[in-house]
Design goal:
The structure holds 2 protein chains of 2 kinds. Chain A has a 3-stranded mixed sheet with strand order 1-2-3. Helix content of chain A is 24%, strand content 13%. Chain A has 4 helices and 3 strands; from the N terminus they run H-H-E-E-H-E-H. Chain A is globular and about 40 Å long. Chain A is of the alpha+beta class. By secondary structure, chain B is an all-alpha fold. Classes of the chains: A alpha+beta, B mainly alpha. Chains A and B meet through loops of A and helix 2, helix 3 and helix 5 of B.
Chain lengths: 151, 263
């Protein structure tokens, strides 16, 4: 079982009356099959020489749940770092109330944690600069055009 | 920018002022989202209902980001969002009751949502770093709200139906005084935020709001420059007396889902 992505504010210790958050739910559920999971590569056999680049490669395989291009091509990944086995992803969303936030966090975490050299995944939610369609890569635009979507 | 506010250096009064302001904004967004959501299936057209539903979604996204800024003050936003009584809510007064008709919804989009956007613009230009980082995205989304609001206001204001025009005018005129009081709060706590460079002076905020809505409201025969702020001010919550109805706060808190509490 994978761990819950690190999202500030979620892991409340509860109150004197007992735990409140997630009280009736399993700790973590992979709740969907979006993100093109069937297209993910098999885990790498050996740890990569350049883990940051390898993290980017993994994220390239994670698709937006609503638009079948990758999060990287959509321009949602603002940065990646890797330190002592922990991958930190600076991630934004297309909208402040994006209904797929949790799906996207799960997909990123699950894709990365299938790699033996990744011991943890930290997702930092960022909003600066604000995402606009200008951040879609040329390759992303080409794929969207093939799908009949203008951007 | 290196001129960001050092939150750790604030004294107790300054922290309380920032806390009060954040809750005032976040609660207003949360309750406005609820008021919009009531119209998903009640708007004059399906398309408009869906648009209003999307605006409700945006408002809750904004509320979430604003509540999360409380962490800068070492305050648990989950407690604030889910563990307060009705009388603790600090949303702006016109949201205390549901919008009574579509004209009131449109008046709310222009006056209340417009005032919120004005205040957020001021906040984003200040020294509180989380606001400078997160509010611009909210304002991008608010631009779509304003397009719908201004188009519908014009449509109702120029309607051949005297009843529609009258309802729009009545709702707008009722909302303006408490919103002006809310925008231009000149009390000690907001003064502290102005001194800290977190907010622009009250007079500037009110002027920006009047400039924003002047031409739109004029189409409905309303002169925003004649409107005066209402009396009565609850300094503890940064709003007038009263509070949103229980039917709204129980949804805001998620009372019926507490056994399955997830953020």
């Amino acid at each position: 079982m994978t761990s819950l992505p690190v999202v500030s504010g979620v892991d409340s210790p509860g109150t004197a009356d007992g735990p409140r958050l997630n009280a009736g739910l399993p700790r973590h559920v992979t709740s969907h099959m979006s993100g093109g999971r069937d297209l993910w590569s098999d885990p790498m056999v050996e740890a990569p020489d350049d883990p940051e680049a390898a993290v980017w490669d993994c994220l390239q395989e994670v698709l937006d749940p609503e638009i079948p291009i990758s999060l990287v091509e959509l321009g949602l990944v603002y940065g990646v770092s890797f330190d002592e086995g922990e991958a930190t992803i600076r991630l934004t969303f297309t909208a402040t109330a994006c209904p797929c936030m949790e799906f996207i966090r799960e997909d990123i975490t699950d894709r990365l944690e299938q790699e033996s050299w990744v011991r943890g995944v930290r997702i930092e939610e960022v909003w600066d600069p604000p995402w606009t369609t200008d951040r879609i890569s040329d390759e992303g635009r080409r794929k969207l055009r093939e799908l009949g979507v203008g951007a | 920018m290196s001129d960001h506010l050092d939150v750790s250096a604030l004294d107790a009064d300054q922290r309380a002022a920032l806390h009060r302001f954040l809750v005032s904004l976040a609660d207003s967004k949360r309750i406005l989202g609820i008021r919009y959501s009531d119209w998903l299936l009640g708007a004059p057209s399906i398309e408009t209902g869906i648009a209003t539903s999307s605006m409700a979604q945006d408002e809750w996204g904004h509320a979430r980001l604003l509540y999360s800024m409380l962490k800068e003050l070492d305050v648990d936003p989950v407690e604030v969002e889910h563990d307060r009584g009705d009388e603790d809510y600090a949303s702006v007064d016109p949201l205390d009751e549901p919008f009574g008709d579509w004209a009131a919804v449109i008046a709310g989009m222009v006056v209340v949502d417009g005032a919120l956007a004005t205040l957020l613009e001021s906040f984003s230009r200040g020294r509180f770093e989380p606001a400078t980082m997160r509010v611009p995205k909210m304002l991008d989304e608010e631009a779509f709200h304003w397009s719908l609001a201004s188009a519908w206001f014009r449509r109702l204001a120029t309607s051949s139906s005297a009843s529609a025009r009258g309802k729009l005018s009545d709702a707008t005129r009722a909302m303006l005084p408490p919103v002006l009081a809310w925008l231009g709060a000149e009390d000690e706590a907001d003064d502290r935020l102005v001194e800290l460079g977190v907010l622009e002076p009250a007079a500037d905020r009110v002027r920006a709001f009047r400039d924003r809505v002047r031409d739109i409201l004029a189409q409905g025969g309303i002169d925003v420059d004649e409107a005066e702020p209402s009396d009565g001010w609850d300094a503890a919550r940064r709003r007038g007396p009263g509070h949103p109805g229980h039917e709204a706060t129980e949804r805001a808190r998620g009372d019926r889902n507490r056994m399955l509490f997830v953020e």
